[in-house]
Specification:
Layout (H helix, E strand, L loop, with lengths): L2 H9 L3 H4 L4 E9 L2 H4 L8 E7 L4 E5 L6 E5 L4 E5 L4 E5 L17 H17 L10 E10 L2 E9 L10 E6 L5 E8 L5 E13 L2 E12 L5 E17 L1
Antiparallel strand pairs: 1-2, 1-13, 2-3, 4-5, 5-6, 7-8, 8-9, 9-10, 10-11, 11-12, 12-13
Amino acid sequence: MHPLVQLMLDAHGGLAHWQKFTTLSAHLSQGGILWPLKGKAGMLDEVDVAIDLRRQFTSHAPFGAAGRRSAVTADRAAIETGDGALLEELPDARASFAGYGLESQWSDLQLAYFVGYAMWNYLTLPFAFAQPGFVFEELEPWQENGERWRRLRVRYPADVATHSPLQTFYVGADGLLRRHDYEVDINGGTPAVHYFHDYASVQGIGLPTRHLIFVRDPDGGHQPEPLVVSIGVSELRFA
């Protein structure tokens, strides 16, 4: 185990404790310019999410209308009824974004895929790093907001659906995540900076309850506007 990964795991509640649970559910309150830009304004403003902690699976409900939910794995997106009957699916979801850019609008199934893999990634941090296939490299520290953050470059395994193969994480002296940099490959490679705020202890696991995502500038900074995505997380529960 890379020592910085171990520090993060311990600070967020410990891997042994995390492994006692198999699912995580939460309520999301979301905003930002991304959703209207993609033609999906208001669709996911207030929604419940459930993820599987042992495999990459995510479901949002309601999805587009009452009685509909999404079902997303690493390579497939589907929309189902509330009792699990299939309404429509996109088997090779990632391939459907070929040639898409920042202003390309998404279908409902593409939206399901994006928010499905993204929320699974966000809500399993940093514990997903204990799975096989991740490669780590510590970079030079970073100064921001009067703090010195350690930086970890992470190469993701090919079987994990995520924003980009290489991502960078910024870690405070307390071992908690402060910031996350990546490129959104399915959105034309848009460079993003993602901040984690307002940590809460949920059944012994530390999780951020506010996420703010901006377009990242070439120097590593960002402009305060536009706010690309905001995510408020509440009603968190492990089982």
